[in-house]
Amino acid sequence: MYKNWWKILGALLVIYSTIAGFLSSVPELPILHESIRNLYFHVPMWFGMIVLFSVSVYHSIKFLSNGNPEHDLKAVESINVGVVYGILGIVTGAIWAKFTWGQAWSFDVKQNFAAIALLLYFAYLVLRNAIDEEQNRAKISAIYNIFAFPMMVVLLFVLPRLSDSLHPGNGGNPGFNSYDLDSRMRAVFYPACLGWILIGYWIYTILYRVRSLEKKNTL
Question: What is 33-98 written as a DSSP string?
Fold first, then answer.
């Protein structure tokens, strides 16, 4: 049981942040109104995605250094879960945009770059399926992943700040501050981020174990 404490913690944080996210009080802000509750779901998806992609690039580097196929499996499974988180991030963002900006996809600069960043990892999965030989697939995928990660960081955190954007904290648009992200919201937002990251990591470990068993049975 003591080895699984982080899984229990992740589950409890997600349950808490989901219930509190819908029931707790939030600041009364123009335009955002009750839609600000989406902060508890939209942003944690992106944080979880970034953590999972960080795990994947770590294992890609480890694979290139020692050639252990377990690291290749860990890299691809963490990306699989990270891509799902990215899709959920875009979907929750589109729902939020519909109520605050008037349309689900307004071609805001950060929306566009987020979609491109996610397409980088779709391309990673397509690349893997296009190569039959296992060692070549693992090596080429690892190299691609190492270059894709910094490109993702630039697309999400650098380029949007160089032009006007409707997103908070980009293009001169102020980010959430002490006025709107007050102590009530922080008490839900931070646990939500940690909880969804832990749940994403848990799912990744399960997928890795399943893939490992399938590979052993195949051999």
Answer: GGGGGGHHHHHHHHHHHHHHHHHHHHHHHHHHHH--HHHHHHHHHHHHHHHHHHHHHHHHHHHHHH
Q: Which domain holds residue 67?
A: 32-211
Residue 26 counted as domain residue: no
Q: CA 85, CA 116: separation in Å to the nearest integer? A: 15
Note whether residue 27 is domain-resident: no
User: Rounded mean pLDDT of 16-21?
Assistant: 94
Q: Are 104 and 95 in contact (CB under 8 A)?
A: yes
Is residue 144 a part of any domain in this protein?
Answer: yes
How far does CA 8 lie from the centroid of its chain?
Answer: 20
Confidence of residue 179 (pLDDT cuts 50, 70, 90): very low
User: Of 7-11, 166-170, 193-197, 200-204, which range is least confident?
Assistant: 166-170
Q: Is residue 8 in a domain?
A: no
Question: What is the distance of C-alpha 198 from the center of its chain?
Answer: 12
| pLDDT tens digits for range 133-162 | 889 999 999 999 999 999 999 999 888 877
What's the residue count for the chain?
Answer: 219
Distances (CA, A) of 125 to 27, 82, 128, 146, 216: 41, 12, 5, 14, 22
C-alpha closest to that of 40 among 196, 204, 203 = 196
Q: 3-class SS at 30? A: coil
